[in-house]
Known about the structure:
The protein has helices spanning 2-9, 47-56, 69-81, 85-99, 102-110, 131-146, 156-162, 185-198, 241-247, 309-321, 366-381, and strands at 15-17, 33-34, 62-64, 119-120, 124-128, 152-154, 172-176, 180-182, 202-204, 208-214, 217-223, 228-229, 233-235, 255-264, 275-277, 282-287, 290-299, 329-339, 346-349, 356-360. It has 11 helices and 20 strands. β11 (217-223) and β12 (228-229) form a beta hairpin. Strands 3, 5, 6, 7, 14, 15, 16, 17 and 18 form a 9-stranded mixed sheet that branches. It has a 3-stranded antiparallel sheet with strand order 2-8-4. The protein has a 3-stranded antiparallel sheet with strand order 10-11-12, with no helix packed on it. Flavin-adenine dinucleotide binds at residues 17-20, 24-27, 29-33, 35, 207-208, 236-238, 240, 244, 259, 261, 294, 335, 337-338, 360, 362-368.
Amino acid sequence: MACALTLRRDGHDVVVLDPQQPGEGASFGNAGIIANCTVDPLGMPGIVSRVPGMLLDPMGPLSIRWRYLPRIAPWLMQLVAASRPARVEAISCALAALLGNAVEIWADLVRGTQGEHYLTARGWIHGFETETAFAAMQPIIELRRRRGVRVEILGPHDLHDLEPAAAPIFRRVVYLPDTAFVTSPVRLVRALADTFVAAGGRFAQVRATGFGEAAPGLHQVTTEREAYPCDRAVIAAGVWSRPLAAMLGSRVPLDTERGYHVMLRTPEHPPRHPISSGERKFVIVPMLDGIRITGGVELAGLHAPANFTRIRRMVGHARRILPGLGRDIVSEWLGFRPSMPDSLPVIGRSPDRPWALFAFGHGHVGLTAAASTARVIADLVAERPPSIDLQPFRPDRFRF
Ligand SMILES: Cc1cc2nc3c(=O)[nH]c(=O)nc-3n(C[C@H](O)[C@H](O)[C@H](O)COP(=O)(O)OP(=O)(O)OC[C@H]3O[C@@H](n4cnc5c(N)ncnc54)[C@H](O)[C@@H]3O)c2cc1C
C-alpha cells in the first residue's frame, strides 16, 4: 500500500491486486516499531554457536519444526554465510541506507492522512535483568553505533523517570531514542489504502496469477478472475512473492520466519514506550487496542499449524516487567515475515523483465522500510536515480 500510494501521488494509474483486504498479511500483527536502529542482520557473527542453545531453550527466541529442516537447510546455510564479519558490515551499511530516515519518510507519507494519528515518535527500551544478556547485546550496540544509530545506556533510576510503568527489575537499560512506533499497524495500512483510493487508486480483492507479455513488454497481469492491462508491475506480496518472482525468471531464497503475538487489555498505568526483554527477546508494545506482546522466530514454513505455547509463556514474564498487566489473552495471531537469509530485502528491477519491480523480503523490518522502499520504487518507475545504492538488494545476489 505504501508503494501504491507513493506511485499514485507520482501521477500513475495504479491498481492494487490482493486476495486479502489491505493490511491482513504480516503487516496486520507486527510489533509496530519503526526500527530505524535495526541495522544488524539476524545472522550476526557467532550465530552457529548460539543456535543450539536457543533451540534447546523452551523460552528461547528461536524454534524450528524439525520436519521443515530439509526445506529450510539451504536458507540456513546462506544465513550462516552472510554472518561472516565482513558481510555483516556490508549488510549493516545497506540496511542503514534503507532505514536511516525511515521515521521521517513515514511521517511524509502519512502527513495529512488518518495514518498520522498512529505514528508515535517515542523511543524503544531494552531492559536486561542480567549482565550476561547485556554483554551478549554489545556487538549489536557497537555495530549500531558504527552505523550512526544513537544508543543510550541508562541506569535503573533513569528508567523510572522515562517509563514509570516498568518494574525496577532491570540492571541495565539500553534506550534507542530515535525510533518510533505505530499504535495500530493494521489501521495504518488501511489508512494508506483509504488515501490511495480517495486519490483515484483502485483496489481489487483478487490474487495475481501471472503476467501476460507482448512486445515490447508487459501487457497485463492475470488474476483468478479478469486480467488487468498494465505496462509495469510491482511485486510486493510479502512471502508470497517467491512464486511470482520465479515466473519472471528470478529464483530468490525467500522463506518465512513465523512470528506470533498476543493481545492483552491495557492496564491502568500503561507503558509509554515499547519495552523489550533482553533475556527473552520479546517486546511489549502499547497499542490502541491493548498491549501487544510479540517475539520469537519459528522456522516451519507457511503451512504448519500455529503453536501459541511459547508466546503464551511470555505473558508471565511480561507481567514481571509490567506488574499492572492482566493475565487474560484477548486475541492471538500468527504471521509470516518474508525473510531473505542475509536480512536484506529484494528491491529493484527484475534482471530479466525490466517492466517488473521487486519490493519484498523485508523480514523483521517490513513496516520500518515500507515508506522508504516505496520511494525507491517510485523513483525506478519514473526513471529517476534512486536515493540509495540498490546493488545490495539485487534479486540475483544469491546463486542456486
Ligand atoms: C511478530 C512480528 C513482529 C514484527 N514486528 C515488526 C516491527 O516491529 N517493525 C517492522 O518494521 N517489521 C516488523 N515485522 C515485519 C513486518 O511485519 C513485515 O516485514 C511486513 O509486514 C511485510 O510486509 P509486506 O507488505 O511485504 O507483506 P505482507 O504484509 O505479508 O503482505 C503481503 C500481501 O500480499 C498479498 N498476496 C499474497 N499473494 C498474492 C498474490 N498472488 N497476488 C496479490 N497479492 C498477494 C497477501 O494477501 C498480503 O496482503 C514483524 C513481523 C512479525 C511476524
